[in-house]
What does this fold into?
Amino acid sequence: MSGGAVRELVSTGCRVLAANGHSDLVWGHLSARDPDGRGVWLKRAGLGFDEIGPDDVQLLSWDGELLAGQGPVHLEHHIHIEVLRARRDVAAVVHSHPEAAVALAATGLALQPVGHEATFFTPPDVPRFDRTGDLIRTSELGAEVAGVIGPHNAALLVNHGVVVAESSVERAVFGAVVLEKACRAQLLAVSAVGADRLIASPDEEALAKRERCYSARQVSLGWQYLVRSLPGPAAAGVTS
Amino acid sequence: MSGGAVRELVSTGCRVLAANGHSDLVWGHLSARDPDGRGVWLKRAGLGFDEIGPDDVQLLSWDGELLAGQGPVHLEHHIHIEVLRARRDVAAVVHSHPEAAVALAATGLALQPVGHEATFFTPPDVPRFDRTGDLIRTSELGAEVAGVIGPHNAALLVNHGVVVAESSVERAVFGAVVLEKACRAQLLAVSAVGADRLIASPDEEALAKRERCYSARQVSLGWQYLVRSLPGPAAAGVTS
Amino acid sequence: MSGGAVRELVSTGCRVLAANGHSDLVWGHLSARDPDGRGVWLKRAGLGFDEIGPDDVQLLSWDGELLAGQGPVHLEHHIHIEVLRARRDVAAVVHSHPEAAVALAATGLALQPVGHEATFFTPPDVPRFDRTGDLIRTSELGAEVAGVIGPHNAALLVNHGVVVAESSVERAVFGAVVLEKACRAQLLAVSAVGADRLIASPDEEALAKRERCYSARQVSLGWQYLVRSLPGPAAAGVTS
Amino acid sequence: MSGGAVRELVSTGCRVLAANGHSDLVWGHLSARDPDGRGVWLKRAGLGFDEIGPDDVQLLSWDGELLAGQGPVHLEHHIHIEVLRARRDVAAVVHSHPEAAVALAATGLALQPVGHEATFFTPPDVPRFDRTGDLIRTSELGAEVAGVIGPHNAALLVNHGVVVAESSVERAVFGAVVLEKACRAQLLAVSAVGADRLIASPDEEALAKRERCYSARQVSLGWQYLVRSLPGPAAAGVTS
It folds into this structure.
């Protein structure tokens, strides 16, 4: 995949996040690993997810230096660089502040599979980064986030937001979308009966569902739908 | 009703479901019994409810073989085939993952008539399929779902979604729409005061309401409204 | 006000209700007293609130006979006829099934002024009609609803919906809009801390607020805004 | 900044409030201090936040006399005059009735930082004005509100609404937007697990986050995004 294709994919992913509950003014970001190993393609700062086009995606070096692209760089680029540095199997990272996931993190509850969506992540429970709810503004903090994620595909940054780390932009964005849906459904059920009475899939079932509901093929179909559903003119990155 | 008319009706029903809280990316389906007994007309896989036109409705044999139409077949077609096989009085089946119904199923609470909508289903309570929250991927599992539905017009698939089985596409889609409304209203009330303090229609009243609020004529009027309210150009299947 | 003006006003009011949380497919109605005493102008059956134009408003006699207009008559016209018969000071009646008000009625909680809106109604608490949650399908039941309303401007029909009875179409529709807002805000607060900890305006304050927040002038301004905010081409019934 | 520029900025701010959860028919207002010290520029009465253009912003003297502009004056202009009189460091005031903030005030709970947003305000907790939930209809009541705000940048008017007082229109509007988001997230979390189990940023962390998440630069970027996101033709007050 060329740099141009990565930029187009990241910008499409940003607009999918915007259209699916991840908008928070100009905050939140999406990155992809550079196919040539030069560093990380990251949404620029100062614009909302819904505003991002290919020209708004920057290439940062592994030291956070701006190699290509224009505009300000997100202060929290450390999340992306450190997660991608630590995990060779990860090719894309979402960081955002979706309402239900932020609320669930503040409840202290484990994510539980009320429907399909949570099985993309759990078991085991989505790890929590709770050293600080402040911005991830240094490489050390970024590395700590990466450490909390460990081998998992997401973490909740308590009192802050979410990180989803996946093997492709498509999967990272898809994961962020279903994570927010999962958290909202769980909060809805728990608010009615309390956490102790919640009926959720046991671990073995959840693992089996992950394979089936979210096979590579299903995730790809879900992603393509998300792109087709974007407002505005025909979007990039979808094979019709 | 010809195959063409069935296809048109199923596609209209899919778009009604999309516009009324049943969209879940490319998942969820609607089917109708073939008027000539050849099998089941089912929404194709890989597209969202909102994207379905008449050409996206497939004819499957009673063995799940693709007899007409194009595109991939939903893995869970077994739900439709087995419910329609078991129930000669059923002509259409909805399966979807609406948020409030999924949450209500995870609370373990009985569906109770907070307003009119739940009386389309209860009493008795909507049966629960809880053998698995995983996909209904075999004819055996489909037959078990059909067994749980028994003579009823719906079931909640715990940690998964809903099935509505009715005597026509119009009624199945209408039922799915009011089921989700019923669940949301109940969760709203229960979250405020708890399940024990909920005021709901007693059974006798609910049964009387079902006859009156949801007479054949009222359901037909409701369906026609849903179709008129679809976004985009004038929809098929409504007599003005 | 001529019959034509009443029809236009009722149809405008129906569309305002639709745009403010009172849509329930083809159910729910709005009526106005005939200025010449012949009976009641009522939205016709079979259409949703959003679909009503002046030609969709019927004149019914005090016996429920169709005197002018076309289309089917709502079975529950008894609510309108009996409330207007019992209350010479009432000129318009809304009956609808808004989600939060239906949920609040099912909690058994008194309506309490969490913000401004509830003071349009309480104190004293909005009376509850709980003889049946079924349709108001006879003049006797309509008269009972009127009896429960008594001198008040609204009642909650438990497990059914709301009735708002006011001195004009503008006020009845405005009241229905703020009733639903009041119920939603109360449910939001009560779901967080429980009904016992809710902080609400004491009665004396609520009464003073009713005079001030909802003076004739303020209600008129609110109504005019609601009409200006209707989707589609310029609406009737507003002096610019 | 000229009077014309202030009018344009206030009108833009009103439309931002409308688009971000602060609409309440024709109620709620935004003001800015006159750069020449003559008094207060205030949104006129009788129109909703979404309807305000530059010509709908009035100049009031420090005695509440209409010096420029047309249309009725908001009865509650005392809030604006008295807060701006008491606080030379404040240049703009929002008063509105957003649903979640009104509900949170009615719970009696302290605002707690579930995510970033609340740190714009707390610690210390947003002060509560609870002498009355009625309108702020006299200069004495306005002065009392100003007294409750003290050195803070907001107050909750219990059973009424919110006041945000900031050093610019941009900051006041931005603050109002994040206050409502903060309250909604907190209610969502508290409804699930109760206030006692809520995980929120400790004070020191919240203060650090305020400096970082809501630096002058970040708030400016947030404001500019809000303006760019307004519906309709290109908005005033944003440097591209």
